[in-house]
Write a structure and sequence with these properties.
- By secondary structure, the chain is α+β, with helices and mostly antiparallel strands.
- It has three domains: 83 residues, Phosphorylase Kinase, domain 1, CATH 3.30.200; 184 residues, Orthogonal Bundle (Transferase(Phosphotransferase), domain 1); 107 residues, no CATH class.
- It is 38% helix and 17% strand.
Length: 410
């Protein structure tokens, strides 16, 4: 008979209310009659009992989850059969799955996506260390559990987990194993699965968290499979132009059709995603060098506009001094980021020029954040050309074009 509230399963778990149902079965909130604690009891669907592999898959889920000890994988406590219906008891989770979160909130901030990917990667690393491939990672199998005022990610449903090296992991057609929009090319073709099968799915989930939909999803199943094995991965910057360009290269590798070209571990994928997102803003010393390039370009323009030989020499000297100051500025930026001991004192301006007629180049004032993300006070490093009394005598040799700057020098 079908389970109902009040039924005591296995002599230990009294069913209280249904929580969710799916292809594998129904999950109930239950009470352990002896320990008086709440647990979740998953009863295998009677429709699945008719399948030759149904009970085997259900038992595999219990065995796999019980083997994996991680705070980010749902814990299974017990397994048994009640009136011909297999069941398993596991920890009771409070919250919502990632699919519901995306449906409610839409695309997530990049920092939040990175944090979730890093935790999913930790869970997959535990499974892979136990030589298990999940094969069905998707937002619906990622639960955001509320515990002690915090949100803890839990990976669910190891019902179709596969032992590494145990043969092919899928069959094509109607018997394909996995959720279509998250299946890897090797699953579509019925080839042997491996760690890269899970890193592919993790890449798809990361893409969906950023954009709000899977890059391969379609109403027609044949179109889904066609996109997985043929279509180019759409750029995330089409939907979110503010994201760094490095993400396109990241997803090109994460979702490469050849397993040899993908990330070979979940940890490697998470680390690469962090680097791609960090590329959104240049490092402090890089910003200083960019300011130096802007300064040099302005001075070079003045050189080109100068017609007299003496003007060329004067502005050329200013150009050299500006370049040296910019290099020093970049070096100090690196040192400030490395030490980050606190706010630095404002730089003391250089003495005023001997003559007001001498050309002068001033470095732009660019605030440089420290490693602790607190902005340092802006600094100004005036660079002053020498006075006319120190001006060198122009050479009588014909001007030569400087190959570095492309301007005539004496």
């Amino acid at each position: 008979m079908d389970a109902a509230a009040g039924t005591v399963v296995g002599g230990r778990y009294r069913l209280e209310e249904p929580l969710a149902s799916g292809g594998m079965g129904t999950v109930w909130r239950a009470r352990h009659v002896e320990l008086e604690t709440d647990v979740a009891v998953k009863l295998m669907s009677r429709e699945l009992l008719a399948s030759a592999n149904g009970e085997k898959r259900f038992r595999r889920e219990a065995q796999a989850a019980a083997r994996l000890k991680s705070p980010h994988i749902v814990q299974v406590f017990d397994y048994g059969v009640f009136e011909g219906q297999p069941y398993l008891a596991m920890e009771l989770l409070d919250g919502e799955d990632l699919a519901a979160r995306l449906e409610r909130e839409g695309p997530l901030p990049a920092a939040r996506v990175l944090a979730l990917v890093q935790v999913m990667a930790k869970a997959l690393e535990v499974a892979h260390g136990a030589e298990l491939v999940h094969r069905d990672l998707k937002p619906a199998n990622v639960f955001l559990h509320k515990a002690g005022g915090e949100e803890v990610l839990k990976v669910l449903d190891f019902g179709i987990a596969k032992q590494l090296g145990s043969g092919k992991g899928a069959t094509t057609g109607a018997e394909a194993v996995g959720s279509p929009a998250y299946m890897s090319p090797e699953q579509v073709w019925g080839e042997e699965v491996g760690v890269e099968t899970d890193t592919w799915a993790l890449g798809v989930v990361a893409y969906e968290m950023l954009i709000g939909e899977s890059p391969f999803d379609h109403e027609v199943l044949a179109k889904v499979f066609d996109r997985i094995v043929k279509a180019q991965v759409p750029s995330v910057r089409v939907a979110r132009p503010e994201l760094p360009e490095a993400l396109d290269a990241f997803f090109a590798r994460a979702l490469a059709r050849s397993t040899s070209e993908r990330f070979h571990s979940a940890r490697e994928l998470a680390e690469s995603l962090q680097k791609a997102l960090d590329g959104a803003a240049p490092a402090p010393h890089q910003r200083a060098l960019e300011s130096a390039e802007t300064l040099a370009a302005g001075v070079t323009q003045r050189v080109r506009q100068s017609r007299s030989p003496s003007g060329v020499v004067w502005v050329g000297l200013a150009l050299g001094a500006a370049a040296l100051a910019a290099i020093g500025f970049a070096a100090s930026s690196r040192q400030g980021v490395a030490t980050s001991a606190g706010p630095s004192a404002a730089a003391t301006p250089a003495p005023a020029p001997a003559s007001s007629e001498a050309p002068r180049a001033v470095a732009s004032e660019t605030p440089v954040p420290s490693a602790s993300s607190s902005a340092m006070p802006a600094t100004s490093r005036p660079v002053v050309a020498p006075s006319r009394s120190a001006r060198p005598i122009p050479s009588t040799r014909p001007p030569v074009v400087d190959p570095k700057w492309g301007v005539p020098v004496q």
